[in-house]
Design a protein that fits this description.
With 168 residues, the protein is mostly helical. It contains six helices and three strands; from the N terminus they run ααβααββαα. A three-stranded antiparallel β-sheet has the order 1-3-2.
Length: 168
């Protein structure tokens, strides 16, 4: 197993020999871990945790939503969304109000306080983007985005037909 040092600008998580058959997958793991870490640091400064800003982005763009709609939009689960909405509500960024069309449902809506937060969230996302793509040209950024979207499509297709990939 090779050791990597942050000073050398290389991976900070050693690549175990067992991951040798999946170097791309291990690189994605490392990238996602670091991305979430930096996002968390930046978001904590404005009173949010990773993922909460994505819920707020949907609410700002789409307006009030049922919690079940947020689960679908975020490809989340009900328990996680319940915790997220509760925390956002406690922070004063969302409120619940009865749905005018479904008496059993509540709508989650952004508050005035959250609208003031929007500029900070946008700033954090620009800063995160600058950190991720610091030394990439515009062309390299476009190529990276296309590659990431292609990898995502591959996994979406695999999730849609798990039997086709079982046992490979």
């Amino acid at each position: 197993m090779a050791q990597f040092t942050p000073e050398a600008g290389e991976a900070t998580v050693p690549v175990p020999a067992a991951a040798g058959g999946g170097p791309l997958s291990h690189a994605i793991f490392r990238l996602a871990r670091l991305h979430r870490m930096f996002a968390g640091q930046l978001l904590r400064r404005i009173g949010l945790h990773p993922g909460q800003e994505l819920v707020m982005m949907h609410l700002w763009e789409l307006g009030p939503q049922r919690q079940t709609d947020l689960v679908r939009l975020m490809d989340s689960d009900a328990a996680t969304m319940t915790r997220t909405v509760r925390r956002l509500e406690q922070a004063g960024f969302v409120r619940r109000r009865p749905s005018p069309t479904d008496k059993r449902a509540a709508l989650i809506e952004p508050t005035a306080a959250s609208h003031a937060l929007r500029h900070e969230v946008e700033r954090v996302w620009r800063q995160l983007e600058d950190l991720v793509a610091a030394d990439l040209s515009a062309s390299e950024r476009a190529d990276a985005l296309l590659t990431l979207e292609r990898l995502e499509r591959n996994l979406i297709q695999a999730a849609a037909d798990p039997a086709a990939h079982h046992g490979q």
